[in-house]
Structure formats: structure tokens, C-alpha cells
Amino acid sequence: MIQFDKVTKNYDSDLKALHNVTLTINQGECFGVVGESGSGKSTFLRLLNQLERPTSGTITVAQQVLATLSERDIKKRQQQIGMIFQQFNLLHNQTVAQNVALPLKLRGKMEPARVLDMLAFVNLTHKADAYPRELSGGEKQRVAIARALVIEPKLLLCDEPTSALDAQHVDEVLSLLEKIHSQFQTTMVIVSHELAVIKRMCQRAAIFNRGELVGITAVKSAENAQQYDSYEARAMEILQQ
Ligand SMILES: Nc1ncnc2c1ncn2[C@@H]1O[C@H](COP(=O)(O)OP(=O)(O)OP(=O)(O)O)[C@@H](O)[C@H]1O
Asked: The domain at 1-80+154-229 falls in which architecture?
């Protein structure tokens, strides 16, 4: 579904946020992206949802080379991508139902029944008229997930989806992401510095270090407490167990 071919991204300076990255993400896959701070994870996501363009190389999504698309087609593509963030990014002066309805409203659609379906899917029907300040962190993230799903995305991008949550809410949100993956076969890309999250959710993961793709590994279960020389060695070892 997604192909990066020798993709490099420089921002203003000479520093390469991503350097010569080639990888493929399959349709229906849950793909993890790990790496230390500044390794290029967010840049990878921003290229995927076309908020940034590569300095060189090509990105192909659903057999379409992104660079060949018009602004209008890029906007259309972006509307098929759902995104969830570490800090939820809810509108605080809007109710839960209004937050979930927002992507539909932006497309000029009013589908209250669909909003209610989504709230039921994330188990928050009873909070439809509440405001974000009245919710727990886990509930806020579930609202954000309902908002991402309301457009029936082909691709769901998750940027540190559990990093702002305590353990109980982490489980709640991951269970919901698992349910989405099994029910809708949505292709998912999860960026997280928490290896346990990637381990639970993903079939494969890419490991980045300073903009370089160090490797892609199949993910197996159960973590051990061994000491490693570097973050990359630990990531590679733990994810392969
Ligand atoms: N808009 C920007 N302008 C200039 N440099 C940037 C910009 N965004 C990111 N960078 C730089 O690109 C490199 C990769 O950043 P990126 O945000 O992709 O890393 P990350 O792995 O997501 O980090 P974190 O885990 O801390 O969010 C970093 O050196 C960063 O300073």
C-alpha cells in the first residue's frame, strides 16, 4: 500500500531528517516505527500524510506517486487518512459528539447517525454531550479515535497514541486499536518510543536512528530485561524475540 523509494527529507539546514529511506508497508498491516528522539519518526509520518514533501526520492501510496498529484488530489488523499496524536488534539469548546462530527462537517456532510455509531464503537455514547475537560485521558483518546474513524480511513496514522496515558488507559486504547485492525483491516502505522506498544500491536517495525533506517524487523512477543549497548540494539533484539 505504501512504498518509500530512496526518500530523503532535509528541512532548512543541511541536517537530513530522513536519509535514503526505502521501505514497503503492506495493505492491512499494522506497522511500527521506533527510534530515539530526533531520529525522524514524525518526519516519516508527515511525509506519509503529505504535510511535507520529500527533498528527493518517491513515495507511492495505493499505486499513486504522491509527487505527481495536484494540490486538490493531495487534499482528497489526506481526507482518506485518519490521524491520532499523543495530546489528542480535541477542540475544547466543542462537545464529544461535535468533535467526532468535525471531519464530516469539514466535508459539508451532516451524518448524526454515523457520529452516534462511532461513539458506540468507542463505548462513549453516554459522553456525547460532555466536553473534553470532563473526560479522562483514555476517554479523550477514544474520542480522537472516533473522530479519525468517522471518515472510514484506509490508513490510520498513530503518533505516540499512548504516551500521555497511564497504564490502565494504555490498555483501553490499545484494545480499541486492535478492534479497529481486526474489524476493518485498516492499514495502521504506529509511531511510539514504547517498545511494548509496538510489540503488542505490530507485525513489523522499522527502527530509525538519526534519519537512517537501521532495519526492519518482524515483531514477536514477550520482552526481556537484558541490557543492550544502544537503543537500536535493544529495539532490534526485543522486537525479534
Ligand atoms: N520543521 C522542521 N524544521 C527544521 N528541522 C526539523 C523540523 N522538524 C524536524 N526537524 C529536525 O529533523 C530531525 C528529525 O525530527 P523528527 O521530529 O522527525 O524526529 P522524531 O523521531 O519524531 O523525534 P521525537 O521523538 O522527539 O518527536 C530532528 O533533528 C529535528 O530537529
From this structure: 3-Layer(aba) Sandwich (3.40)
